[in-house]
């Protein structure tokens, strides 16, 4: 091999190395730009997510009657909305489930009065039982006998004298089931269906 051949080979190798280095440089620049684009996209997503959270929080605070210092116009509440949880919220769903549970307990209390009580002489459709007897029967099921009686009276299912009944003192006070048990069952079943439907929609 002559000196000229060595020189040509050396030049070719040098050219190839220069081209290869240039290619590596181009690839490095492209990789950097792609990383920068990916970072920019990720950063924009995070900013959008933060803005969304901030707007949601601001909207929530605007509905809070106790918020102060934000210069936010207070939301006006209707009489039906005031003091109630936001429709569809977890608090609202828990409240509906609790209402359904109490309705079932009131119905159970009415069922016990119907089964264990005796018809009145003048009005056989009205069933009566003394508070003492009812208390002794129902406390084996629940300790909320008096509270449920008050709720049942508020809904005009039962009636009795006095504001609150106390064990021993009011044992002889009669409790009257003033509506037929079938009507009470129907009313409760309709209300329970409404609550179940509202809860599933929420």
From TrEMBL:
* Cross-referenced InterPro entries: Abra, Costars_dom, Costars_sf
List keywords of the entry alphabetically.
Answer: Membrane, Transmembrane, Transmembrane helix
* Gene Ontology cellular-component terms listed: sarcomere
Q: Where is the Costars domain?
A: 100-178
The species this protein belongs to is Frieseomelitta varia
Task: Return the protein name.
Answer: Costars domain-containing protein
User: Gene3D superfamilies annotated for this entry?
Assistant: Costar domain (1.10.10.1540)
One Gene Ontology molecular-function label: actin binding
SMART domains associated with the record: Costars
- The keyword Transmembrane helix is assigned to this record: yes
Q: Which residues cross the membrane?
A: 12-30
Say yes or no: keyword S-adenosyl-L-methionine present.
no
Name a single GO biological process. positive regulation of transcription by RNA polymerase II
Query: Known PANTHER family for this protein?
Result: EG:152A3.3 PROTEIN-RELATED, STRIATED MUSCLE ACTIVATOR OF RHO-DEPENDENT SIGNALING-RELATED
